[in-house]
């Protein structure tokens, strides 16, 4: 199952719009919803991305696949998986903090986000500086 670029963009905009509408309603105190409920569009979108990523990674496990082909591609997919899990950890910790389920400091809540940003900067620097241009 492949999605076209237009479908991916439309799906991204739809889930972002739903999240922002729910967030504005919560912040304006028009809706007394739980913070975990506000983040449902984000988690649905992330679940779709994770399933697509895992299916692509599992396709490499089929018989007859040469592991030397596309090892860089697999490293990128592993980084994407780690990034998605870090984002999920950040969202869960943030919701728990906002809902009052935990008393951890806000600096600890943001640790997965900071690790994600540092990893993104490292990947960007690697892609700019170290990858040979054809």
UniProtKB/TrEMBL annotation:
TM annotation in the entry: 36-58, 78-100, 106-129
Database matches in InterPro entries: TM_Fragile-X-F-assoc
Keywords tagged on the record: Membrane, Transmembrane, Transmembrane helix
Name of the protein this chain belongs to: TMM60 protein
Matches recorded under PANTHER family: FAM11A, B PROTEIN, TRANSMEMBRANE PROTEIN 60
Organism from which the protein derives: Nothocercus julius
């Amino acid at each position: 199952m492949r999605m076209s670029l237009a479908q991916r963009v439309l799906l991204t905009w739809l889930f972002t719009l739903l999240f922002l509408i729910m967030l504005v309603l919560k912040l304006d105190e028009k809706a007394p919803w739980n913070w975990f409920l506000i983040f449902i569009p984000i988690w649905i979108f992330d679940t779709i991305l994770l399933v697509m990523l895992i299916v692509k990674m599992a396709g490499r496990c089929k018989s007859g696949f040469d592991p030397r082909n596309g090892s860089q591609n697999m490293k990128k997919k592993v980084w994407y998986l780690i990034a998605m899990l870090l984002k999920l950890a950040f969202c869960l910790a943030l919701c728990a903090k906002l809902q009052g389920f935990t008393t951890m400091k806000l600096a600890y809540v943001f640790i997965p986000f900071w690790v994600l940003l540092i990893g993104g900067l490292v990947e960007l620097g690697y892609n700019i500086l170290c990858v040979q241009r054809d």
